[in-house]
Amino acid sequence: MAVGWFYLSALALFSLGSMCILSTIYWMRYWHKGFAWDGTILTFNWHPVLMVTGMVVLYSAASLAYRLPQSWVGPKLPWKLGHAAMHLMAFILTVLGLAAVFNFHNHEKIPNLYSLHSWLGITTVFLFACQWFLGFVVFLLPWASVRLRSLLKPIHVFFGASILSLAIASVISGINEKLFFSLKNGTTSYSNLPDEAVFANSAGMLVVVFGLLVLYILQASSWKRPEPGLQAERQTLLHGEE
């Protein structure tokens, strides 16, 4: 039953994650004229797409690597490598997303890091970088003792979920900030909910639902990789034996 619910949740996650990315792309293309890398507002349009893709969707996929039933048995190293590689890809996309917004601000002589959204976002990326480095040094390289890994594992897990929560908060505040700026001088104010506001608010709610489902799966004890003493029980569950 736990395996069936996991795959059902994974299908829902894949659908929601795809919708989050595609809706952000559509928002930037339909209402904000698409993408470029020339320092103009079209460069900025990469920022929300890359941040949603990297910091929310791909980060979540990497975090859930150990929840796959196939990871319950066999050697753990391939899953560690996959976990680290997906997080690294998420970090690269996130850095590109930051480069897009800094490039745009510098080109247009707009101050950097003045809003609460930017403070929250840069804090999230900083914690992500620290988290990845700690995970690589302690959990992937072979030098760390079992005692040290056991001591740091709860901290690593806590910050993993916290960074995702901060990323979702950053995306939501960023959507709100973008709408205030883009609709401020428009013919229809944000408070009157023009089509763009309805669409972007809906995209934000998709991100929230996606994030909540990821956090639920991360904390569900029945989907965690078992301790060595429970391996036999999980192997039975995987093979449908009694």
Please, could you describe this protein's structure?
The structure is a single chain. The chain is 75% helix and 0% strand. Helix 3 packs antiparallel against helix 4. The protein has a single domain (13-225), classed as Four Helix Bundle (Hemerythrin (Met), subunit A) (Up-down Bundle). Residues 229-242 have low confidence and may be disordered. The chain starts with a helix and ends with a helix. It has eight helices and no strands. Residues 12-219 form the Cytochrome b561 domain. Its cofactor is heme b. It is an enzyme of class 7 (translocase). Its EC number is 7.2.1.3.
Q: Number of DSSP strands?
A: 0
Gross morphology is: globular
Radius of gyration: 20 Å
Strand content: under 5%
Give the integer mean of the pLDDT values.
90
Low-confidence stretches: 229-242
* Architecture (CATH level 2) name: Up-down Bundle
Q: How many distinct folded domains?
A: 1
Number of H- or I-type helical stretches: 8
Protein name: Lysosomal membrane ascorbate-dependent ferrireductase CYB561A3
Enzyme class: translocase
Subcellular location: Late endosome membrane; Lysosome membrane
Catalytic activity: Fe(3+)(out) + L-ascorbate(in) = monodehydro-L-ascorbate radical(in) + Fe(2+)(out) + H(+)
